[in-house]
Amino acid sequence: MKKILFVINPVAGGKFVNKTNLVEQIKTNLAQGTDYEIKIWESLSQNEEIVAMIQSGNYSMVVAAGGDGTINFVAKSAMKIGIPIGIIPLGSGNGLARHLGIPLKTIEAIKNISNGKEISIDTGLINGNVFLCTAGAGFDALIGDLFSRSTGRGLFNYAKMTIQQLVSYAPNEYTVTFDGQTIKKKAFIIAFANVNQYGNNTYIAPQADLQDGYLDICIIKPFNALQFWGLGVRIFNKTITKSSLYEYYKTKKVELTFEGNDPVHFDGEPVKLGNKIDIEVRPGSLKVVVP
User: Fold this and answer.
1) 6-17 per-position pLDDT tens digit
2) φ, ψ at 165 (rounded to 5°)
C-alpha cells in the first residue's frame, strides 16, 4: 500500500471544533505501520499544489479532514485518478459523513480510515461543477450567499440570519425540466439531493440514496408563518415527505431556469451561475471508505 495523504483544513467548523491534537491523533490511531503524509490546507494559494499531490500517483488514498467543502475539493481530484477518499468530519454540518455513517468523533473517524471498507457512490454536476451532497436554488442558496459574506459564524448566527430573512423573502418562480416533463411554479427551496440531508440532521431528502444512480429533486412550496415550525419539525424528524408543502422526483438529468441572477449553491458553497442550470448525476463515480 502506498502512502495515505491527509489534507487538513485548519479552519473547518470554526472555533467550535477542536483540531489542536489532530496530527497527534492521526499518528496514534492509524493502523501501525501505515505510511502517510499530512498537508495543512492553509490558503487558496495552495490549491494547485494540493491537487498536484493528490494526482501524483504517490498515494493510494487521500483523506479530507474538514467539512463538506473540503471533502468536495479533495474528491474532485481523487475521482480523476480513481483513488478512494477517507473522511475525518470537522465541519459545522458534515452532511456526507452523517449520511454515510462515518463517526463524528475524530478518533473513531481516524480508525475507520484503516478499518473501513471501500464503496462507490454517486456524485452530481451542476453546470459542470462537482457536488457530493446537495445543490439547489431558493432560500437556502440566498442564506448561504449572505452567510458567506457575513462576519458572524456558527449555527447561532446562521439561525439568526435565517429568521431575519424569512420575514421579507419573496420566492422566485422556477421552471424544472426533466424526463420529458416540465414543472413551473414558485418555490421556497428547490434542492437536488444526492444525500439525505444538508448537514446537522436537516433531512431535505430522507429518501435519497447515493448509490441508486439518481438525484432527488426536492421542492418546498411557499408557506405562511403558521406553517414554518411544523415544516421545521418535519425536516428534522425525517417526515418532510408527508408534508403537503413538499414534492420530490427522481431523475438522472434536469434543467432549472429562473428569472434574475439569484445565487445557487452546491455542497454549501454559494455561487452565481446564471439563470439556466443543468444538473446531472454521475453514478458510482467516487470511492469512499466507510464503516
Assistant:
1) 999 887 655 544
2) -75, -25
